């Protein structure tokens, strides 16, 4: 049976719209409503401003897609999807601060520190990180259906590792130290594996962790998911570097050519444009190979993971 | 039986020295060794600098004391103690940044951003928060004896709530907005209940959560611990405000009179010095009353919690 015959009705766009509606609604519900606590209104507004109405939500979509592939708990996946997005959102808020990238615009809007001040941006980022872990650990009598303790703990473990020293924060530190330096291929790969790869891979693994039994937990399936997560994390960055030189700023939604202007090492500066484009396609093939392994292990529902990989590698912005 | 007869040999100083030796050793082991990852050495050094060799470690001691009171798992408590301290440490690093309090010295050493730069201080704080949740969720085959999943999830939930929007980060935001304002007593209490109280109370409750069965889980015991935690959190801040006007900077280890100079609302500015001192003693009595309730509920091992409350209220720095 050909892949196209398995999922005749799957449409990534329709699927994404449905998933994103759930994610946006959940984020709006879970990222504090300032009305609850008037003294905290300022912080609450900054947190909501940082999170709502923005971004491609690639990480939440990966969580939901991976959860579908393993037939996991949709309620658990929604919390995981939002938690991962909060970590991503907080990292952007802190990244934009004057002591880091000093960006004043993001997604066409003033960055959080421009809109709310640096101190509020710092605290909003800090509070968003804490909220991510709070979302993953609802009290067992919470009405949106309990996530069992083992899943809660497992999700927290994966997210903490992906966000921290040997994950996103570590990658940012390497990135910071690398400006103006000549990194070799292995150093560039390591930096991105941590800076963006860790959280993208965690999105896949956390989505899959929303099933705690059945084939999802087999070593073969876990390995296939890890390979998919590694490849998609890397592909994301390679394509980002390609678009930085090929897309114009209007399509990209941010300043094109910025990496080169800042003398940041990129896949394109290291490998050249054509080789980077070839590399991105190879990585797409790696994700498809991993999905074939999932199917062979009895998990045929891989269309969303396939669609996201294709979209991510062949996107124009 | 009088309280003094129950614990004839208890010496807070000896007990603290023993506990702190374990905590310091664990922090040094768990807060990343840069040797593991050369590219991450800079971030690792900043994280260790922020955490090791400093502070009274009041929060870890409260965790350990509460765990003793409920005869909980010492291994779980050690992780909880270190996790709470990492949250405290990260908050100080971010608090000291130029966009917040702009402090250049802490505990007699240059602050993290002075020693490592603002960007590294920001990232070190972010990574320390993630590490706190990583410490609470060891893989179940970890050699230092597993903490069961229910305890892991429960500890994460309490720490995330205490650190976030309706906890420490929220309190800092209120504090930030309150400089130069006239707060009334209820607003001042609310600010401190969040800013410092939430994490101190969480220390008590997390220590107690290291026992998942027996009398520790009864409603009466949980209420008594919460009351103790509330009172000790508040007492800590009242005494801090008192010392800001009565102690000299050398004894205090930080600049005395700073609150008044910055026109920050304090218990002393609101109530006066004598009333603040009386209030601190009342709060001490509340902690002792709560401990009597614990004892009545069949948990007699309260001497460390008692000693810490007394030390905290009657400290000179």
UniProtKB/TrEMBL annotation, chains A, B:
EC main group: transferase
SUPFAM superfamilies: Terpenoid synthases (SSF48576)
GO cellular component assignments: cytoplasm
A GO BP entry: terpenoid biosynthetic process
Annotated transmembrane regions: none
GO molecular function: (2E,6E)-farnesyl diphosphate synthase activity; metal ion binding
Superkingdom to which the source organism belongs: Bacteria
Keyword field: Isoprene biosynthesis, Magnesium, Metal-binding, Transferase
Cofactors demanded by this protein: Mg(2+)
InterPro entries linked to this entry: Isoprenoid_synthase_dom_sf, Polyprenyl_synt, Polyprenyl_synt_CS, Prenyl_diphosphate_synthase
EC number: 2.5.1.10
Family: Belongs to the FPP/GGPP synthase family.
Protein name: Farnesyl diphosphate synthase
Species of provenance: Polaromonas vacuolata
Lineage summary: Bacteria, Pseudomonadati, Pseudomonadota, Betaproteobacteria, Burkholderiales
């Amino acid at each position: 049976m050909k892949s196209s015959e398995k999922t005749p009705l799957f449409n990534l766009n329709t699927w994404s719209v449905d998933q994103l509606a759930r994610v946006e609604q959940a984020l709006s519900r879970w990222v504090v409503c300032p009305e609850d606590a008037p003294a905290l209104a300022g912080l609450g507004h900054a947190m909501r401003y940082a999170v709502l109405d923005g971004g491609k939500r690639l990480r939440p979509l990966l969580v939901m897609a991976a959860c579908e592939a393993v037939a996991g708990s949709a309620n658990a996946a929604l919390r995981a999807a939002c938690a991962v997005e909060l970590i991503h959102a907080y990292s952007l808020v802190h990244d934009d601060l004057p002591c880091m990238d000093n960006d004043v615009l993001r997604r066409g809007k003033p960055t959080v520190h421009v809109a709310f001040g640096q101190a509020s941006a710092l605290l909003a980022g800090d509070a968003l990180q804490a909220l991510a872990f709070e979302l993953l650990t609802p009290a067992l009598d919470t009405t949106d259906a309990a996530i069992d303790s083992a899943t809660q703990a497992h999700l927290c473990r994966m997210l903490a590792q992906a966000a921290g020293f040997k994950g996103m924060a570590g990658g940012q530190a390497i990135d910071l130290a690398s400006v103006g330096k000549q990194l070799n291929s292995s150093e560039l790969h390591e930096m991105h594996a941590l800076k963006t790869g860790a959280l993208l891979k965690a999105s896949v693994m956390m989505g899959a962790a929303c099933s705690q039994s059945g084939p999802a937990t087999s070593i073969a399936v876990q390995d296939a998911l890890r390979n998919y997560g590694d490849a998609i994390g890397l592909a994301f960055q390679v394509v980002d570097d390609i678009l930085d030189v090929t897309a114009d700023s209007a399509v990209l939604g941010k300043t094109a050519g910025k990496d080169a202007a800042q003398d940041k090492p990129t896949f394109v500066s290291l490998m050249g444009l054509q080789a980077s484009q070839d590399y991105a396609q190879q990585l797409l093939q790696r994700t498809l190979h991993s999905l074939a392994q999932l199917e062979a292990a009895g998990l045929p529902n891989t269309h969303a993971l396939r669609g996201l990989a294709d979209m991510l590698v062949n996107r124009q912005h």
